[in-house]
Amino acid sequence: MSHDPNASKQDTTHDTSRSADPAEEPAPSVVQPASGTEPEAVVKESPLAAAAGQSATQSTTGRATPSQERAIPAPRLAEHHAPAHPTGRRLALLGLTALGVVYGDIGTSPLYAMKESFSSVGGLSATIPHVYGVLSLIVWALTLVVSVKYIVFVLRADNRGEGGTLALLALIQQRVAERPERWRRGLLVGLGLFGTSLLFGEGIITPAISVLGAMEGLHVATPALQPYVVPLTVAILFALFMVQRRGTAGVGRVFGPVMMLWFSTIALFGIIEIAREPQILLAVNPLYAVRFFANNGTVGFFILGAVVLVITGTEALYADLGHFGTRPIRVAWFAIVFPALLLNYFGQGALLLRDASASANPFFLLVPKPLLYPMVLLAMMAAIVASQALISGAFSLARQAMQLGYLPRVTVLHTSASLSGQIYVPEVNALLMVSCIALVIAFGSVSALAAAYGIAVTGTMSITTLLFAVVARSRFKWPVWRSVLFVALFLTIDLSFFSANVVKIASGGWFPLAVAIIVYVMMSTWKEGRAVLYDILASGGMPLDLFLADVARRQPLRVPGTAVFMTSGPQSTPVVLLHHLKHNKVLHEQVVLLSVHTAEVPFLANEERLHVSALGQGFYRIDAHYGFMESPNVPDIMEQARATGLDARPMATTFYLGRERLIATGASPMHRWRKALFAFMSRNARGATQFFGIPPNRVVELGAQIEF
């Protein structure tokens, strides 16, 4: 990333011992801690500084020798991943739990998928050929997209056990980093970020459409309740988001049993109807789908925009890989979910053969009338489970993006003392709640929301196909012909679904696209802005070996205690340290240069966690490494460092942090509007003090104004 060496840095010298203010301090990525200050003042005072500024290359004598480095184990963390090959009771338990987390979204699709196929596009009537054709499309969409593409292939692409678009992107970055083609890396990163952005849009729509679809069952039971469907949906969504701060540990225990009851019930009602019209099973023949396309032309093709609703939630299969492992997810799909969905869809088709008017809501009309209200209640519970899975997924996605440096720091609260994956992100929760409720009020029905749903789902699926093909070539060593065959088959399916949803952009499909574009712009702007700011700060810094030599020569006054300065460059002096020495004219007896690095893997083993190096002159370097699914904690790091003999007593340790005030008037290559956006995101990011768990009464802030 290029930078402007003439960027203006105006000293503001906030030398006050006070708590960091998250509203003012910008939020750098974890691998690039904030260090806003005026480096040039110290450079001018030191004879070595001028030479340092002119030197093209510097030695690394300030780095520790191998004998000085020691690996320190981190505290034992909660179990992150399920066993690799569970069997027996453990497999059954994981499979049951997966029903409530992985399959909530796709499991509630029968509420509206068949209904929308006969009501959303072109007024398709529920004639016998149409019923067979649509049902055949549903069967083969579930088979090819879910069973083959995701269950058989995509689940293989795990990043140390974790799945999801960002995990896949991090995996690709590890492989592509070995190649010199920057354009290729940029294209793949762009695709991954946009796929992630679409997932945020899907996370907004899923709670709205799932709960609203369940509540529309009240209209089937009693038409007089129709005016109350939207208000009840809004009330349920509001309550659902308000309880997020309490965590999901308690209700999470019942998710699996609830979904087991759901799948058993919908399968039973499907079997009852199939027994009345067993010939409906002939729809498994793909020739019915072919004839449907041949006989219905354009209308037949665009009906795919409704059929795609049966495969919503497929990304959850991959995103939740780390929680359960491949085997439980596959067993739950083939043993319970897939058969139950097929039986229910066949049952709805059989009902339509007998009564075409049932296309108004075939799912609830499949239910015997005395059981309608209990079924509405069960559907509501299943919809809440589906919504919870997407909400928790959005929290996890936000943390991953933040740790990988694509979003500013946000508040991450752990809601479980034993499970590190259970988190609550208030900022994301508030945005989701407002957006979901606004969607329900604005669209008012499942039919209207369905138009917005397909774009997000099909766009994400298409990107996953392309990214998986890259991983298959680089990691699995697939031959070119196999990768091309995979892309040709599944990208054709994905783009067919996507194209069929393009006609819905004006009627609602614009919403997930708008969300995706906004999120993508924010993530790319933050990543580029941090890189530009890092280059500006680094351009005025001093190589660490020259700084240590200058300290040895000048022998500044030393005071008791330990000072901790956060830094990202292993060979450069933190600008905050230069600022501190310039204004305060003293150094602590021990000075710790702390770097917190985020790896492109979800979790790191204990032996990879911490390294402490002695640099001489009372200086130490601590390198703490975390995966992008982990949350760093500076007091824990310092406590572990004490095992090396480092005198880092909490009450004798002071943390020095930088605070930059960004002014978007410099000559950096970013567009002016992106500079303004970056500055706005920095001002509203969570402060380093809170994010890293640093005691506020041990913090000193040193600030600067930076034109970039």
Write the layout of secondary structure elements.
Elements: E1 9-11, H1 40-45, H2 47-54, E2 70-72, H3 88-101, H4 104-107, H5 113-117, H6 128-153, H7 165-176, H8 182-215, H9 217-221, H10 229-242, H11 249-276, H12 287-302, H13 304-307, H14 314-319, H15 321-324, H16 326-354, H17 362-365, H18 372-403, E3 413-414, E4 423-424, H19 426-443, H20 446-474, H21 480-502, H22 505-539, H23 544-554, E5 557-566, H24 575-584, E6 586-598, E7 610-616, E8 619-626, H25 634-641, E9 653-663, H26 672-683, H27 688-691, E10 699-707
Parallel strand pairs: 5-6, 5-9, 6-8, 9-10
Antiparallel strand pairs: 1-10, 2-7, 3-4, 7-8
Helix pairs in contact: 3-11, 3-16, 6-12, 6-16, 7-8, 7-20, 8-10, 8-18, 8-19, 8-20, 8-22, 10-19, 11-16, 11-18, 20-21, 20-22, 22-26
Structural account:
A hairpin with an 8-residue loop joins strand 3 and strand 4 (423-424). The protein is 57% helix and 10% strand. It has an eight-stranded mixed sheet with strand order 1-10-9-5-6-8-7-2, sandwiched between helices. It has a two-stranded antiparallel ribbon with strand order 3-4. The protein has helices at 40-45, 47-54, 88-101, 104-107, 113-117, 128-153, 165-176, 182-215, 217-221, 229-242, 249-276, 287-302, 304-307, 314-319, 321-324, 326-354, 362-365, 372-403, 426-443, 446-474, 480-502, 505-539, 544-554, 575-584, 634-641, 672-683, 688-691, and strands at residues 9-11, 70-72, 413-414, 423-424, 557-566, 586-598, 610-616, 619-626, 653-663, 699-707. It is of the alpha/beta class and 708 residues long.
